[in-house]
Amino acid sequence: LLAPTEMSSPSLKAGAYILIGVGALTMLMGFLGCIGAVNEIRCLLGLYFTCLMIILLAQIAAALVIYFQKETLKVELSDIVVDLIEVYDPSKEDKRNLQDAWDYVQTQIACCGWTGAKEWENNEILRNKSNTEYPCSCSNRSKDLVEGRGFCVLDDPVNGTATYADWPVHEQGCMDGVEQWLKDNLGIILGVCTGVAVIELLGMILSISLCKNIHSEDYTKVPKS
């Protein structure tokens, strides 16, 4: 969703590349594991074990980075969102995926802006229209959420001008909303992560067991002198 010029955060760039690498490694790992198990090839099973171990270590490293660098990541993410809000333009198709993703966040979490709706006053289009329009995805009115993206027109602005305080939008910023969502779903997130780690450990144990069985079978097949 994030183009290189838009995604200026080194930490988020590194995280995206790590996820791409882990995804590719997972596909390769599954293929090698199946081939090794079906044909009882020890070297492929050993490679399968190594790939699983690398993925598990990468996940642990990513968790540690997120935990110890969470304040830095929060600042970098804030800069990205603020820049996105300033240049938000529903007519630009080349940025539609990124803008739709942010509209989805604001709609689902019922929030507006990163720290509040005031950040939308810096949007170039809204400034040129004297803030008589507002982002539809921020709205607290159901009729605006039908559109779900772009800008909605404010009813009866005073003297043809308005401020964010006149908009019918949610007061909560998305930063607080995201943090609250993470707190509310922390148990589920930890449970899923733990389940994935357990499955990976079971896969490592299984690959070792298969390697030992193949080794034992090869040893019994060796003719005794």
UniProtKB/TrEMBL annotation:
It comes from the Eukaryota. It is found in: Membrane. Gene3D superfamilies: Tetraspanin (1.10.1450.10). InterPro entries: Tetraspanin/Peripherin, Tetraspanin_animals, Tetraspanin_CS, Tetraspanin_EC2_sf. GO terms for cellular component: plasma membrane. It is a multi-pass membrane protein. This is Tetraspanin. The gene is Cd82.
